[in-house]
């Protein structure tokens, strides 16, 4: 007996409507661009389902007749933007850093991101029933988006919060170092205490404050702790005890200020502690999830076989047919085989590359989906997964191509790029399917929409990357761009792949970092065994070690603000429903700051690139202010975030809370 048609006699509300698809595509492109900037800047991206759901409810509501399932389709497609951005920025800039590309080639970026994203959708189809229906994993962003859709809260209020926050974030970015230069980008201080170098600083970025509010205090503490390992422990020790014996570094730091010495030592040595910790974290993610993944995949495939055998399936359980999933995997893999063949020029290497990509892609999509269910997409260790992929691929290619191959590191990154895009989309797909499961959507329609969103997002990636590279620089400091966007994951991918093929890496630092990673994992396991709510995810610590301290400080402060809001509301007597409402408003404000700053960063890049001058918007020196004004601007936005999240809510007076 064949599967029952959706909502017999067309009784279901509309889902895949033209207007929903069009709005989802526009939002996916905008969110992809914003997250590209954020990820290159801070090494993190944010899940965007809730802001997309609020925008959808406002826009489609204004057009009339919007239902919960139609709004769900919009947030499903739109959320692909942040996932594709993550997959691309974690890997593809490595091809420029390695010198293989001089700029980001449109057709190649489109192929890698688009095909990788669609493969991620297909790989995740057999996982839906296993992880959502049977194992009932949390998928926190999916649940939160479902609650927003079900509540149908005043979308006008949500749009107002997003708009005010976006304006604040945009104006702060315009005033900062890459725009008017009214205020500096950072407030930092460094000096010597005897032979030890002390350093502290904070970036004056509203976006990073928003990231911290979204990820919470636990992650904020962990990433700051990682940064302090580098900047307040390792760098002072290295400068005092190791630097005098390193003639090359002594020469490189001669005559520099204390702050510049700290940055030089971090760049050339200490940040590789983070490389070691990330390598260990990626391997640990695979080892710790092996049993759950195998059982989940088996049950998902069993459900697909039952459906194919003719069992009656409700519309809420209809995935894309498994036979078409397999056909799609083959069809979308063939262009990647051709792409790999163009790179290496021999089928004896390109064919194994493709096989590695398919096997690693499915395995790591499963890891990504499972981890998204446990800890959410924002905390999903995709970078660790990708490092493990590139490391394994590089070793295999080393055996096939030899240590002198110049194309080997590039080939390893290409494999990792496809796998990373697929893994990011897989985690996002399961979040959206969790939301759909709660609100009663049809899975195959969401899967189609996510594929459309992934392909649409891929269309804008190369232009945005080229614009940012020309305006700010990416990964590598040059005379034209002395402080480029750090692109930490991509820089790491380039270092690992090149290091396997005989490149120079500080392996002693990587080994020490690996030991630090093992210690962090041990601590996390102890906390887990004791039932502690505080955890120390190794990849979050590793990102903190690998990035500048000033980027982690505002993330910690944002997490602290979230904690203080929560404590304030509880003291006021807010119940669980009220807490959820208030934090949702705080999340919207945080997301608005992030989006506003990121989009302004892209907008500022246009006149910089057009004029060829980074000073094109800069005010005269006499009109510029110091760090104090920047601190006041960020403090003012933090106050607005506090008021948005903790202010009186009309719903509190209607029985939604016991707040007084």
Taken from the alpha-carbon principal axes, the silhouette is globular
In terms of DSSP E residues, the strand content is: under 5%
What is the CA-CA span between the terminal residues? 58 Å
Total individual domains: 2
Average pLDDT, to the nearest integer?
83
How many β strands by DSSP? Answer: 2
**Number of helices, counting only DSSP H or I runs of 4 residues or more:** 25
One letter per element, helices H and strands E, the order comes to HHHHHHHHHHEEHHHHHHHHHHHHHHH
Low-confidence regions: 1-10, 655-660
Helical content band: over 70%
- The helix-and-strand class reads mainly alpha
Largest sheet: 2 strands, antiparallel
- Radius of gyration, rounded? 24 Å
- Give me the side-by-side strand order of the main sheet: 1-2
Protein topology:
Elements lengths: L6 H4 L7 H25 L6 H15 L4 H11 L1 H10 L3 H5 L8 H19 L3 H7 L5 H12 L3 H21 L10 E8 L2 E8 L2 H36 L5 H7 L4 H13 L1 H37 L13 H23 L2 H29 L6 H20 L6 H32 L3 H30 L15 H13 L6 H23 L8 H9 L2 H23 L4 H36 L15 H20 L14
Antiparallel strand pairs: 1-2
Structure description:
The chain has 660 residues and is an all-alpha fold. The chain has 2 domains: 13-155 and 288-494, no CATH class; 162-273 and 495-649, no CATH class. The chain contains 25 helices and 2 strands. It has helices spanning 7-10, 18-42, 49-63, 68-78, 80-89, 93-97, 106-124, 128-134, 140-151, 155-175, 206-241, 247-253, 258-270, 272-308, 322-344, 347-375, 382-401, 408-439, 443-472, 488-500, 507-529, 538-546, 549-571, 576-611, 627-646, and strands at residues 186-193, 196-203. A two-stranded antiparallel ribbon has the order 1-2. Strand 1 (186-193) and strand 2 (196-203) form a beta hairpin. The protein is globular, with a radius of gyration of 24 Å. Residues 1-10 and 655-660 have low confidence and may be disordered.
């Amino acid at each position: 007996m064949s599967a029952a048609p959706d909502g017999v006699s067309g009784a279901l509300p509309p889902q895949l409507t033209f207007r929903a698809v069009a709005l989802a595509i526009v939002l996916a492109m905008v969110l992809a661009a914003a997250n590209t900037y954020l990820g290159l800047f801070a090494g993190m991206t944010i899940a965007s389902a809730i802001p997309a759901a609020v925008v959808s409810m406002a826009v489609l509501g204004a057009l009339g007749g919007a239902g919960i399932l139609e709004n769900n389709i919009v947030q499903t497609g739109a959320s692909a933007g942040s996932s594709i951005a993550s997959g691309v920025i974690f890997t593809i800039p490595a091809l420029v850093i390695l010198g293989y590309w001089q700029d980001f080639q449109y057709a190649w970026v489109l192929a890698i991101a688009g095909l990788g994203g669609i493969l991620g959708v297909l790989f995740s189809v057999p996982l839906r029933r296993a992880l959502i229906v049977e194992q009932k994993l949390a998928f926190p962003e999916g649940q939160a988006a479902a609650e927003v859709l079900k509540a149908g809260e005043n979308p006008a209020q949500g749009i107002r919060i997003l708009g005010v926050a976006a304006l604040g974030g945009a104006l702060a970015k315009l005033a900062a170092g890459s725009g008017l230069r009214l205020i500096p980008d950072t407030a930092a201080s460094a000096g010597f205490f005897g032979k030890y170098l002390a350093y502290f600083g904070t970036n004056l970025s509203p976006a990073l404050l928003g990231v911290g509010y979204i990820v919470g205090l636990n992650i904020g503490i962990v990433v700051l702790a990682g940064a302090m390992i580098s900047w307040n422990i390792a760098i002072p020790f290295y400068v005092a005890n190791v630097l005098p014996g390193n003639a090359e570094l002594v020469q490189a730091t001669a005559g520099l200020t204390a702050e510049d010495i700290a940055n030089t030592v971090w760049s050339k040595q200490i940040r590789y502690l983070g490389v070691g910790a990330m390598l260990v974290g990626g391997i640990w993610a695979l080892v710790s999830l092996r049993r759950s993944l195998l059982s989940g995949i088996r049950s998902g495939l069993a459900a697909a076989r039952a459906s194919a055998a003719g069992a009656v399936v409700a519309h809420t359980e209809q995935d894309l047919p498994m036979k078409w999933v397999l056909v799609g995997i083959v069809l979308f893999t063939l262009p990647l085989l051709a792409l790999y063949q163009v790179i290496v020029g021999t089928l004896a290497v390109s064919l194994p590359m493709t096989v590695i990509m398919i096997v690693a892609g499915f395995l790591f999509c499963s890891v990504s989906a499972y981890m998204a269910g446990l800890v959410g997409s924002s905390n999903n260790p995709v970078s660790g997964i990708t490092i493990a992929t590139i490391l394994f691929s590089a070793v295999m290619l080393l055996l096939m191509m030899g240590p002198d191959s110049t194309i080997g590191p590039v080939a390893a990154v290409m494999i990792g790029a496809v796998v990373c895009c697929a893994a990011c989309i897989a985690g996002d797909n399961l979040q959206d399917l969790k939301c759909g499961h709660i609100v009663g959507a049809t899975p195959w329609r969401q899967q189609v929409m996510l594929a459309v969103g992934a392909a649409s997002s891929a269309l804008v990636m190369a232009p945005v990357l080229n614009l940012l590279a020309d305006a700010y620089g990416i990964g590598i400091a040059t005379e034209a761009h002395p402080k480029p966007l750090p692109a930490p994951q991509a820089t790491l991918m380039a270092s690992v792949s090149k290091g396997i093929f005989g490149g120079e890496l500080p392996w002693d630092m990587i080994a020490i970092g690996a030991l630090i990673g093992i210690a962090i994992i041990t601590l996390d396991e102890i906390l887990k065994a004791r039932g502690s709510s505080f955890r120390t995810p190794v990849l979050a610590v590793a990102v903190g070690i690998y990035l500048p301290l000033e980027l982690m400080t505002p993330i910690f402060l944002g997490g602290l603000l979230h904690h203080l809001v929560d404590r304030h509301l509880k003291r006021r007597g807010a119940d669980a429903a009220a807490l959820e409402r208030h934090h949702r408003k705080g999340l919207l404000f945080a997301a608005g700051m992030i989006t506003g700053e990121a989009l302004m960063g892209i907008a500022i890049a246009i006149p910089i690139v057009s004029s060829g001058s980074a000073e094109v918007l800069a005010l005269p020196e006499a009109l510029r202010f110091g760090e104090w004004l920047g601190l006041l601007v960020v403090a003012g936005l933090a106050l607005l975030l506090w008021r948005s999240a903790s202010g009186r809510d009309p719903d509190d007076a209607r029985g939604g809370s016991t707040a007084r």
